[in-house]
């Protein structure tokens, strides 16, 4: 089990690093577009589309690490008052459907990406294919689902991963 947890942590950190690189590239693109528009009167064609695609990629790639480190918003003022066994029970009741939904979403995004790739759908301005970004989102949701699975296993085993 420790191998599974270590693998999830390494992969989550790596894709979070990728999200950081994509976010930096997005910022550079936006600044370059603004400077090109103001100084040279020549904006970068398709910046709006690219920023949308890249922002979706950033969010998808950063989800798993956020969940792994419990950096997301949690409203636990009710469950904090429960006993430890009831807290675990409520986390299972919430976590199991969430995990299945996330795996389902990842699978459906992946199949949607396959359909987009086979149909040749591209963006309107710069003719960039959609499907690589759909695949990135699918991978992000898959990793988030796997992180939720790890959390559920830890809940069932009492926080131990051996």
The helix content is over 70%
Radius of gyration: 20 Å
Overall morphology: elongated
Low-confidence regions: none
- Tally of helical segments: 4
Task: Provide the residue-averaged pLDDT.
Answer: 90
Biggest sheet statistics: none
For the terminal residues, how far apart are their CA atoms?
A: 5 Å
How many beta-strand runs? 0
When the domains are counted, the total is 1
Structural class: mainly alpha
**Secondary-structure element order, N to C:** HHHH
* Content of β-strand: under 5%
List keywords for this structure.
single chain, 162 residues, mainly alpha, 4 helices, 0% strand
Overall description:
The chain has one domain. 75% of the residues lie in helices and 0% in strands. The protein has helices at 2-39, 47-68, 84-119, 131-156.
SSE order and pairing:
Layout: H1 2-39, H2 47-68, H3 84-119, H4 131-156
Quickly describe the structure.
The protein has 162 residues and is mainly alpha-helical. The protein contains four helices and no strands.
């Amino acid at each position: 089990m420790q191998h599974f947890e270590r693998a999830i942590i390494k992969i989550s950190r790596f894709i979070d690093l990728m999200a950081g690189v994509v976010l930096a590239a997005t910022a550079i693109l936006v600044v370059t577009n603004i400077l090109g528009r103001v100084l040279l009167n020549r904006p970068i064609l398709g910046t709006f589309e690219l920023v949308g695609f890249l922002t979706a990629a950033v969010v998808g790639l950063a989800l798993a690490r956020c969940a792994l480190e419990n950096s997301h918003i949690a409203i636990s003022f009710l469950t904090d008052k429960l006993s430890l066994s009831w807290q675990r029970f409520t986390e299972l009741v919430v976590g199991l459907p969430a995990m299945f939904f996330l795996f389902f979403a990842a699978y459906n995004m992946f199949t949607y990406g396959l359909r987009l790739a086979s149909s040749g759908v591209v963006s309107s301005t710069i003719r960039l294919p959609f499907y690589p970004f759909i695949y990135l989102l699918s991978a992000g949701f898959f990793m988030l689902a796997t992180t939720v699975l790890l959390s559920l296993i830890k809940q069932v085993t009492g926080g131990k991963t051996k």
